[in-house]
Amino acid sequence: MTDPLVLVDADGPVLTVTINRPEKRNATNAEVLCRLLDAWKLLDADDSLRVAILTGRGPTFCAGMDLAEIGRLRSGVRDNEWISRLQDEPGISLAAYLKTYRPTKPIILAAEGVARAGGTEILQGTDIRVAGESAVFGVTEVQRGLFPMAGSAVRLRRQMGYAVAAEMLLTGEDIPARRAYELGLINHVVPDGQALTKAREIADRIAANGPLAVKALVATLRETECLPEHDAFTIEERYGREVMTSKDAVEGPRAFFEKRTPNFLGV
């Protein structure tokens, strides 16, 4: 039995999702896409999970979609269960890339090496990003006469500024991790090989916080993007009141005054 092409490991409240196709530079195929979406749905469905980490096995995070797989999908071939599932549910691809499906809990990216095409597209659907110092990021579809369908033509300019996003999209060229950090596309640059360790530190810190508050903040960040301030405040108020009237909002201050770790129940 070979390992699945996406490894999913729940360690306490942290779910680590690892693209496991290092011999193909972790390029995504039908199995990877299906298993990624299954992992995101698991993150939402399991109340014991509070945060996820997305990473890649080996020296490359993700080189994007396997171009050979695109040809197979266009041909209508159904030679395995994953291809068949993708043919029957064509929305899986964009949901797996975090364009049309966004979990209610935060996702931290831990990237080493190359993140190109879909590797940078899925990055834009994560919430906090860590990269090894030798990592590079690029939306390279235009170099193959393709279009980045997983959201980069819209998201990238919102996350790093119009002019830089336009150059990345129209040339298909990479930017190094340090430049991505300066532009606000990633949060941390760490020594090579340490991205996952740093991501786990952040995940553990998030997991220790009130889960209702974390989910409400994630929802507010996403739902208020590009809204006028007045409309955004309406959404913020709704989520904020739900948190502030919860049992966790009583437990947190009580634990602080009693000098103990809070026992958040998510209610």
Automatic annotation (TrEMBL):
It comes from the Bacteria. It holds the Pfam family ECH_1. This is Enoyl-CoA hydratase. One of its GO terms (molecular function) is catalytic activity. It comes from Cryptosporangium aurantiacum. Belongs to the enoyl-CoA hydratase/isomerase family.
